[in-house]
C-alpha cells in the first residue's frame, strides 16, 4: 500500500472517533468540535453519519488509489469538510480556531497529497 493509502487509513480511523462521539457522547462532540454552539442528540447523530460516510470513503480510496472517480469523491469530501468548518468558524462562530487548525491540518494535508497523487485538476480554460 502506498503512503497515501496509509494516511487515508489513519484519517479514516481518526474520523471513527468522531462517529462514536456523534452517536454516543454528544457532550464530548460539543466540547471538542462545536463548543460555541448548542449540540443536540439529533445534530450529533447527523454529524456521526456524515463522518461515517467520509470515513468509508477514506478506507475505500486507501485500497483503490488508482480509481480516479473514487479519489475525486474522497478529495471532495476533504474540501467540503474544510469549507464546512471554515464557515462554522468565520461566519457562524460555532467552533474554535483550535478545532479549525486540526481540521485544516488533516484536510489540508489530504487535499494537497491527493492533488499530487491523482493529478486532480481544475481546467479553467475552455477546450
List keywords for this structure.
127 residues; mainly alpha; transmembrane helix; steroid biosynthesis; 78% helix; steroid metabolism; membrane
H-E order = HHHHH
Give the number of DSSP strands: 0
How many helices? 5
Helix content: over 70%
Kindly name the structural category: mainly alpha
* Number of separate domains: 1
Report the principal-axis shape.
globular
Largest sheet, in brief, is: none
Radius of gyration: 15 Å
Mean pLDDT: 90
Which residues sit in consecutive blocks of at least 5 with pLDDT less than 50? none
First and last CA, distance? 36 Å
Strand content: under 5%
Family: Belongs to the ERG28 family.
Membrane topology: Multi-pass membrane protein
Keywords: Endoplasmic reticulum, Lipid biosynthesis, Lipid metabolism, Membrane, Steroid biosynthesis, Steroid metabolism, Sterol biosynthesis, Sterol metabolism, Transmembrane, Transmembrane helix
GO molecular function, one term: protein-macromolecule adaptor activity
Structural summary, described in words:
The protein has 127 residues and is mostly helical. It has one domain (3-118). It contains five helices and no strands. It has helices spanning 3-24, 26-32, 41-63, 68-92, 97-118. Helix 1 runs antiparallel to helix 3 (41-63) and helix 1 (3-24) runs antiparallel to helix 5 (97-118). The termini are far apart. The model has no long low-confidence stretch (mean pLDDT 90). The chain crosses the membrane at residues 6-26, 47-65, 71-91, 103-124. GO terms for molecular function: protein-macromolecule adaptor activity. It is a multi-pass membrane protein. One of its GO terms (biological process) is sterol biosynthetic process. It is found in: Endoplasmic reticulum membrane.
